[in-house]
Amino acid sequence: MKKPVFILFTVVMCLILGIVPALAQGETECEEGYRLFDHEYLATDPVCIPEDPQRFIALDMPSLELLLYLDKDIVGSTTWVLDQYKATLPELADRLEGVVDVGFPVDLELALELQPDMILSYDALEGIIDYDLGSEIAPIVSTSLIIDDWERATEFWAEVLNAGPLFEEMKATYDARITELQSALEVDPAETEVSLVTANQYGASIWLLDTPQAKILADVGFARPESQQYDGEEAVAAFGTRQTASISDETLNLADGDIIYIYSYSTLDPELLATEDQAIVNFRESPIWQSLNGVAAGQDYVVGAHWFRAGTYLMANAVIDDLFATLTDTEPTIANPLTVFPQVAAHLEAADTATTEITCEEGFRYFDNEVLVSDPTCIPENPQRIAYLLYASYLYPFGIEPAGTWGFERDAANFPVIADWILGLEDVQDIGLPPNLESLTAVHPDLMILADTRVTEIIDELPMIAPTLVYEEGADWRARHRFLGEVFNQSDVAEAQLATVDERIEELREAINEKYGDIGEITVSLVRIFGTGDYFLANERYVSVQLLTEIGFKIPEAVHTMDGWGVNFTDESIQIANADVTLLIGSAGGATNQNIEGQALVTELMQDPLWNTLDSFQAEQVYVVGDDFQQSSLMAAHQILDALVNIFDVEIETANPFLPDQT
Questions:
Q1: Domains of the chain (ranges plus CATH)?
Q2: For residue range 483-522, what is the model confidence (pLDDT) as tens digits?
Q3: How far is 490 from 495, CA to CA, in rounded Å?
């Protein structure tokens, strides 16, 4: 292969022609038009660099981003930098069109053809580029900061590019946004442990202190779980690596925290993206994962791939946006810098103008609603092919058959009264959970109604397929039912259906009061069994527990006022679940949680002498309930009320409207 000979020849010719200023070793002065650059994070000896360079090859993300800010001509980069940046910040993808992939390691022949004034790299001595030969093409500035926090990396490159004032402006904006976030938090960050977890098809990892994400959390003031408080040589000694540590089912407890953020890497490959999205779904469905305190409290959040990188200014600010969205009820008043980035800002301004002056085409209408996470948009007046997440049973009360949905068998098992309808839906496609762009496109929808937590990675691309309504999955179930009624032009139907639920609640309250006395003196607990000695006490975030309190029952004090979904507990603390009546869900798995393993868990607990010391067990007021007690729809509400009628052995006049006519 003759390529290396050609490269050496061209480099020699460069020197002869004077393209690159050659310096004697140890020289401290540079030729005219150049300046000597030295820095504590420079990976090489001091280097002479142009005073006014215009053409760059950028081999790391922080330098690439700063060049975009300075509107410099980026002529080359590497595939992984380009693809990762485009996938993570798609708003800037157009700015990188035409940038040549110079390979990894860098193809010097191709680099020479691009005629750069400078080459910006992370540690070139690690093999990304042949430093000696590459330096004959253009001065190479190589940083020893490989994967580090945005601030140190950006400050370094700002000194290289004479952009000190820009960095100071960035730093001031970042600090101001951090201060605003700290003021908006409803928790004391110093007392709140935040866990960082990556889950993908290759496994799961926790992130330690020597990472960009950890630096952002530290700037806010958050604590970290003990398992993630390692850095430097201590981390290497404990885990064999400085930044992340692999975990398994046996060590999944290392991922626990008061708050947990889960993310994966970014990719432009839609099939790979779908695979990794599904990997996160599978990971979160694990009973072991479900047993973690942060998960049980409803404080685990799937976030975008900007968390995986987080080492640039814009990605760090995207992380701040997520912290605002997940931990506060406040919108930041200091805008994400991306929204004021040149071109992006112009695009957003045009979009805002279009929104305020929006006029829908014939056959469409303007739609907005309180549970929407996506922007208001035009939707069909009479949609025919609807892609919907989560379950088809949510649409059944409106007489709507989806063209695409998910979870047919589980949905049918949860609601046997409409199982034939669910399983008999013709030509309905399974769009997966989470769905991907290909599965949604295959439905040929004219409207998509999707839960926000299930489409995090593809939310910006969804409107390219069809008009899209992304709703808040954690919103109150009644608000979500009204939302669907409004979508289908059936608001009156939705209100009438909710009124029937309220009637049944009132009748059930009266019937129980009449039979048992003051219902307000009866405490009911809902307990999920994850495994032997591993339990969860649910609070009013569960629709079933919400209905219990609306009927008039008390719930255990331990969960009465807490914000999350409930609290994990063990055999040593079972008294927190003490109640007059206990409802049990065997959560080993299965659509109705009544599979063999789930039944075994319930049977084991019912025979446990320790549990049999509780009031409800001694009074034989313990009842096994199904997965519908975890669902949050109109169908679930009626089925839960039916179960309570049976449990308390009372009669009410208003029947479940979805049961077959008994006359």
A1: 3-162 (3.40.50.1980), 186-337 (3.40.50.1980), 358-489 (3.40.50.1980), 503-647 (3.40.50.1980)
A2: 999 999 999 999 999 999 999 999 999 999 999 989 999 9
A3: 9
